[in-house]
Amino acid sequence: MSRANKDAFGVYVHWPFCLSKCPYCDFNSHVRHAAIDEARFASAFAREIATTAARAPGREVTSIFLGGGTPSLMQPSTVGAVLDAIGKHWTVAKDVEVTLEANPTSVEATRFAGYRSAGVNRVSLGVQALDDASLKALGRMHSAREALDAVAIARRSFDRYSFDLIYARPDQTPAMWADELRLAIDEAAEHLSLYQLTIEEGTPFFGLHQAGKLKTPDEAVARALYDVTQETCDKLGLPAYEISNHARRGAECRHNLVYWRGEEYAGIGPGAHGRLDIDGIRHATATEKRPEAWLMRVETNGDGIVTDDLLNSEERADEFLLMGLRLAEGIDPERYKALAGRPLDPKRIALLREEGAITVDATGRLRVTSSGFPVLDAVVADLAA
């Protein structure tokens, strides 16, 4: 994997609408039964892009990510209008990566050719499972057959595509997961995002779990499922380049690397987060989450920003550590030192090395080991203390 590109700059655009709300989801997504005024949203996206570009001018956009929600509910013309607005206000790199998240229903899959024409060159499909019983339990609107059909259409429409799966599902065994994973890797070609099911407060799954009506694998089984994930993906040529993301060499998602390497990105749309360097200071921005309230705010003020925090050197360094140690490539401790104004504690590094949680290579680069990744939060907390 290539080293961090200091000039990387991403644009994240959030489309907040879904056909239905999945019971495990705590993302900023909303169901609307009336038709969405896409033209009005496209105008608001363009306005917020213009305002953001005025605050952070002169950037070259290296990646764009249309996330959600379900961005594949947008008309291709709306996607095209958003991409045109980005190109109008910033320079766009010739080899820009433009990813669109999609749900694998047949209706949305037929739009892939339109997205390709609009400028999308990579899709990420929310498959989540490859068996119908699990999909039904996860509240998904598609069957396993529809998912695989959508993957086939993605393969025909795009050179680059990825899909997500959720594991550590109720009643899932390591053997079942290994079979599912082998099928997924046969279909995935270059990239998979594999997430352990987490029970998030405020979701329907949280209430069911609290009431004992939803049983997830215990800690030992969850760890075995994680180990099967790493072993199977390694063996079949899709090693982890980040704790939940697997790719063939060179096929990593460049946009997500912007986040994990602590680079700059603009957050556009309802509930989008951004990290912008303005006059040498890192700004952490967040926009209004409610779509209609965001719309009115943008139409009145030019952007939907409700939070604009200035990160001090300590906060920036901690964020760099937290994000960077998720990567298999690890971090350069010298960059931490430059951000924090102090080095990482050598005693803590020595202790974590002794425990086998981290390694430090000949260049000084610090990486979390395969045995350290399952306890990553503890490793980060120890180093940041």
Tell me, briefly, the overall form: globular
Strand content: 15-25%
Mean pLDDT comes to 90
- Side by side, the strands of the main sheet go 9-10-8-7-6-5-4-1-11
Radius of gyration: 21 Å
Report the uncertain regions.
Answer: none
* Structural class by secondary-structure content: alpha/beta
Function: Probably acts as a heme chaperone, transferring heme to an unknown acceptor. Binds one molecule of heme per monomer, possibly covalently. Binds 1 [4Fe-4S] cluster. The cluster is coordinated with 3 cysteines and an exchangeable S-adenosyl-L-methionine.
Subcellular location: Cytoplasm
Keywords: 4Fe-4S, Chaperone, Cytoplasm, Heme, Iron, Iron-sulfur, Metal-binding, S-adenosyl-L-methionine
Pfam families: HemN_C, Radical_SAM
Structural features, described:
The protein has helices spanning 38-55, 76-89, 106-109, 112-118, 132-137, 144-157, 174-188, 204-210, 219-235, 254-260, 291-301, 313-324, 333-340, 346-354, 376-384, and strands spanning 9-15, 17-18, 30-31, 60-68, 91-102, 122-128, 160-167, 191-196, 240-242, 245-247, 264-268, 273-278, 281-287, 305-310, 358-360, 366-368. It is of the alpha/beta class and 385 residues long. The strands form four sheets. Strands 9-10-8-7-6-5-4-1-11 form a nine-stranded mixed beta sheet, with helices on both faces. Strands 12-13-14 form a three-stranded antiparallel beta sheet. Strand 15 and strand 16 (366-368) form a beta hairpin. Helix 1 packs parallel to helix 2 (76-89) and helix 7 runs parallel beside helix 9 (219-235). The longest helix is centred in the first third of the chain and has 18 residues, at 38-55. The mean pLDDT is 90.
